[in-house]
Amino acid sequence: MFFFRMIFRSFSRQFKRRLLIAVTVCLSATVSVAMLGVVFDVGDKLNAELSTYGSNITVQPKADAVVNDLYNTGGDANSNASGTSESDPTTFLKESDAPKIKTIFWAFNITNFAPELNIHADVNCASESVDSSSCKASGVPIVGTWFAKTLHMDSGESTVAGMNDMRSWWKLDGSWPKDDSAQGLIGTTLASKLGVTKGDTVTLYKTTVDGSRNKQRITITGIYDSGDSDNNAMYIPSSTAQVLANLPDSIDKIEVKALTTPDNDLARKASKNPNALTQDEWETWYCTAYPSSIAYQIEEVIPGSVAKQVRQVAALQGDVLQKTQAVMVLMTVLSLVAAAIAVANLMAASIGERGSELALLKAIGATDGAVSRLMLAETAVISLVGAIVGALLGSGVAQIVGHVVFGSGITMRPMVFVLVFVLLTLTVLIASFSSIRSILGLKPAEVLHGR
Predict the structure, then answer these.
(1) Between 20 and 30 A from 8 (CA), which of 123, 139, 161, 425?
(2) What is d(CA 408, CA 401) in angstroms, rounded to the nearest whole number?
(3) CA–CA distances in Å: residue 95 to residues 56, 125, 300
(4) CA separation for the pair 189, 172 (Å, rounded)
(5) pLDDT tens digit string along 38-61?
(6) Over the Cα atoms of the chain, what is R_g?
(7) Residue 324 — φ and ψ, nearest 5°?
């Protein structure tokens, strides 16, 4: 009973100091759980955030890809016919093969894709409200694509693919066209040049390979501002562009938006030559959502294609992810260091104030080990309470960070809590070590006589 009364009186006198230890550990746990929670989930969040600014994989006919590599032309997934050349493509992929992208191993990581047929046509305005004398343009870039096309897969699942989501950063005055219709979007530069507004009708003229002259009336449903040279183009449904150019089931590019894992040494090695990988490396690479492995699998299902990652987007994702994770890990480390210093100082002060009590315990027979275990037990209980409260607060802070920065919540993985509790345990033990050593130097006779 005497032992328990000593503990009770000690807790009463040392309440403020113990409270400070609990608060210190709580704050450290809050920062650690919040930062590590974001670190473990930030990869997908950043990929989702950056993918809103365009595709990160582009698929082309193999012949076009070879020419691009030889002459360093094209290759940007966000460019179209308005970006580089006024010539029409001469090699094509089949539009009917595009849905096969959703059948690869990483199909669920493919968040969107859109095929394109990039051609050029002459434009005349057909609306009476427009001055026909100035409403003419030759060699206008026309992009035939999907806008929000519903695909019914062989697995029984359905998915929606198209430009509506691929160009989410566009400023659109009007509405998106419907697929398989005679509707279209026009860029601000071209609209200004032609004097066209939404609701007007324009007529496209196209001379095909066989020499025939085709025409197609297009109703403008909206005017978009992309912020780049794309503003000089017109987007229409792919089926309409194929009829205009007499190129049935033909496309010359597919833009793919995928959630990917940033490249590392293995991914870079595989992107140069997958055949150079060992069997174990191959399995690891193929079963990891690297841009290069997703691109490789797309090539497997689309005949005659070459799929490449957009290097600028991939590099940006990797750099931003590494820097973000480094900052958050640094904040976690600093919070743990601060907690260790604070706990060590508070314990040292507590032992100094309780020297007579500890000396008395040693005088009545308590060993150095027993007294040390008593102090560690008290600190452990206080730290555990602080850690539990801090873990709850840290989870809340992580959600706030997720919603403010990424617009969605953070998935808190159990590993985060396990890791934080292990780190805090080590921190408290290290902080307690120097303080516990002073107990070994206590001499009951000297302390109790006030020496």
Answers:
(1) 425
(2) 9
(3) 20, 29, 16
(4) 13
(5) 877 776 666 655 555 556 889 999
(6) 33
(7) -65, -45
Put residue 287 in one of left, alpha, beta given phi > 0 → left and psi -120 to 50 → alpha.
Answer: alpha
* Residues of the chain where predicted confidence (pLDDT) is lower than 70: 1-15, 43-55, 64-86, 126-135, 311-321, 349-372, 434-451
Q: C-alpha angle with apex 316: 314 to 321, nearest 5 degrees? A: 100
Q: What is the pLDDT of residue 325?
A: 74
What SS3 class is residue 201? strand
Q: Residue 375: which of 387, 353, 356, 358 has the closest Cα?
A: 358
SS3 assignment for 305-331: EEEEECHHHHHHHHHHHHHHHHHHHHH
Bridge partners, residue 145, by sequence: 116, 237
- For residue 147, the model assigns a pLDDT of 95
Residue 393, token pair as written in the block: 């607060």
> What token pair was written down for 27?
């704050």
Q: What is the pTM of this model?
A: 0.64
Q: CA 434, 437, 441: angle at the middle one, nearest 5?
A: 140
